[in-house]
Amino acid sequence: MDSKKIIADAFRELARSTPIDKISVAAISREAGLSRQVFYSYFIDKFDLSIRIYEVEFAPIAQKHRDGVMTWNESGIEHLNIYARDPDYYRNVLSSFDPAGLRSHLTKRMRDEFKYKCERRGAVFDNEEMDYALRAVVGTINELTYAWINRGCPEPPEELVRRFDLCRPFILAPYLEDTDSTTAQDIARDR
C-alpha cells in the first residue's frame, strides 16, 4: 500500500472519533506509522488531506455530472449517500470553520458552480440582491447538509434534496432548475 493511502486511512480513522481541529499532523503520522516528513511530502496540512480525500471519493460523481449522465439533484443524492456511509468522519471533518478546511472549500466550490449555472442560463450578478440570493441558497444547502450529518443522516437523501429545492430564493429559481449538468470543468473552460 502506498504512503498516501496509508496516511489517508489513518487520518480517516482518527477523524471518525475526533474533530479535525483537534487532530495534529503528528497524530496522523503516528497513526500511519510514518514520519511527518512523509506526510508533508504529500500534503500541505490536515485540511489539504481532507480536501484530497473528498476529491478522490467524489470524483466518480463529478465525472458522471460532467458527462451529463447525472443531474444536479441526482448528484446531490449521491453526495449525501457518501456522507451517510461515513457520517462520523464527515461530521468531524466538516466541523471546522477554518478557511483552509473542507467546509470552506465546499462552500466556495458550490457557490462557483451555482453562479456559473445561473449565468449560463442568463442570470446577471451585477447587484447585491443576486449575490445575496446566491450566498443564501448555498449557505442554506450547506447548513441543511451539515445538520443532517450531525443528526446521523435520519432522512433518506432524496428527502433532503427535495428540501434543497424548497430553499431556492425566488430570484434564482428560474436559473436553478434541474434540467442539465454544470460542472467545475465547464466553469474553468468558459473563463
From TrEMBL:
DNA-binding region (UniProt annotation): 24-43
Key word DNA repair present: no
Lineage, top ranks: Bacteria, Bacillati, Actinomycetota, Coriobacteriia, Eggerthellales
Family matches, as InterPro entries: Homeodomain-like_sf, HTH-type_Tx_Regulator, HTH_TetR, TetR_C_Firmicutes
Protein name from the UniProt record: TetR/AcrR family transcriptional regulator
Sequence ranges assigned to domain HTH tetR-type in this UniProt record: 1-61
Keywords: DNA-binding
Protein's UniProt keywords contain Acyltransferase: no
